[in-house]
Amino acid sequence: MFGEDFNQNHGFVMIPPQDIDDAAVDSEWISMANYGHATVYVMVGDTAGATFAITINEATSSAGAGGQVLTYTNIKSTGQKLVISDTSGTFTIGETITGGSSSLTGELVAIGSNFMLVRNLSGGTTWTTTETLTGGTSSATATLTGTGQDEDILLEKVTAPSSTFTVPAVTFKVYSIEVDAESLTVADGYDHIQVALTDPGAATIAAGCVVLSRPRHRGVPMPATLSTQKYVATSA
Q: b/e string for 200-234 if b means 16 or more Cβ within 10 A?
């Protein structure tokens, strides 16, 4: 029952799964005329050590008229819980922590008496048990006693982006961006958005989905958002 209600009151636009190497990938232009909010999800598989950027564009039509970059100030991504002991010093939220033997890095989002929550930044998610974690700003240290937990936890980026976020070379992560219709340049007729992924320069599997919510009108089915556009593997 809940799933049926969700489907009837939301819109969905996908970014088809593909290797985005050697070609920037743009979603179709998505109309927000009948919706108050959109959540952009970008999912990453294998990255081959490459990074790419996510930009949200806005336009006045489904043809991309007047296209320009939209500023957004929040992004979340799945991270990881690290179990720790023997902490020395005081870690700083937002600093980069580095594993002494694994050389993995992560942004510290939260810390408790025996755990850290981190957004993975480089090297992957397979930290080494018993290695020393060191804060890049605080120089505080802790011993890692448990890894691989809660890799589905959604964590907000501590430092807000401006208009572009660079996805780190970490496999099997999900990134989300919240977009309010009011954040578009509505006064000038901007009511369409597009998700743009840059070329990482190496084999990288990615996909995405835009979930439209807060409909201005109810209906079954909900109002369409793509007009006559067709899904393609690469639309850039």
A: bebebbbbbbbbbeebeeeeeebeebeeeeeeeee
- pLDDT tens for 143-171 read 999 887 899 999 998 887 788 999 999 99
Q: 15 and 208 in contact (C-beta within 8 Å)?
A: yes
pLDDT tier at 235 (50, 70, 90 boundaries)? low
DSSP line for 88-150: ES---TTPEEEETTT--EEEEEEE-SSEEEEEEEES-S---TTPEEEETTT--EEEEEEEEE-
Alpha helices in the chain (DSSP H): 2-8
Token pair for 61: 């039509």
Q: CA–CA distance from 49 to each of 44, 90, 133, 138, 204 (Å)?
A: 12, 31, 22, 28, 9
The burial class, CB within 10 Å (0-12 / 13-18 / 19+), for 175 is buried
C-beta separation of 219 from 211 below 8 A: no
- 40 vs 112: CA distance, rounded Å: 30
Quote the distance between the C-alpha of residue 31 and its chain's center.
21
> Nearest Cα to 196, choosing from 174, 227, 165?
165
Q: Is the confidence at residue 221, as pLDDT, over 90?
A: no
**Quick check: 124 and 170 in contact, CB under 8 A?**
yes
Measure CA 73 to chain center. 12
